[in-house]
Amino acid sequence: MTRIHHPAAAHVSDVLIARGHHGVIVTQSEPTHTARQAAAVSGVPLGAVCKSLVFLLDDDPVLLLVSGSHNVDLDATGRRLEGTLTRAPIDVVEHATGQPVGGIAPVGHPTNLPTFVDTALERFERLWAAAGHPATLFRTTYPELLRITAGLAVDMGPETREG
To answer: Which of 23, 28, 38, 73 could form a disulfide with 13 if both were Cys (CB 3.0 to 4.6 A apart)?
Structure first.
């Protein structure tokens, strides 16, 4: 039986195809609101799940694509991005992405959000990311993720001291 994609997921698929990705969206029978749920359903390590998180860099929304096994170090990452990084309020997240929280894709937003990609994702051969709705995912690779999002690679962990 063919499943009809949620309109946001169908839009994400169209954007993926326009950017040279195969555009295949996998629809789960149950929503995968968290990276842990997505990893379990996909049978991949938690770190191979790409979380799409909206933050404010100073006062402007930015998209951080983060390994499922990481939390963003706000202070260190803010310094790397040359600003102050804070979590965006939910209304800003929904407005900036046009997608529901728990299903935010790396692409397909109404505006081009500056995008930064966690370097920790690079160690995985294949990645899974939400596709515009909490019950949808798509597969990609780290180089492809950088390309389709026009993202910049950034270490989002704590700073290390040489010493």
So the answer is: 23
pTM for the structure as a whole: 0.93
The backbone region for 98, taken as left when phi is positive above 0, alpha when psi lies in -120 to 50, beta otherwise, is left
Report the alpha-carbon distance of residue 40 to residue 104 in Å, rounded. 18
To the nearest 5 percent, what fractions of the chain are helix, strand and coil?
A: 30, 25, 45
- Phi-psi domain of 102 (left: phi exceeds 0; alpha: psi -120 through 50; beta: other): left
- The single residue listed with the structure tokens 């909490």 is 134
Nearest CA to 79 out of 163, 162, 22, 158 is that of: 158
Q: What are 27's strand-pairing partners?
A: 136
Which residue do the tokens 């946001």 mark? Answer: 8
> Which pLDDT tens digit goes with each residue over 121-144?
999 999 999 999 999 999 999 999
**Could you give the angle at the alpha carbon of 56 between the alpha carbons of 66 and 135, nearest 5°?**
45
Nearest residue to 122 via CA among 46, 23, 39, 48: 48
Q: What is d(CA 48, CA 92) in angstroms, rounded to the nearest whole number?
A: 26
Backbone phi, psi, residue 51, to 5°: -85, 135
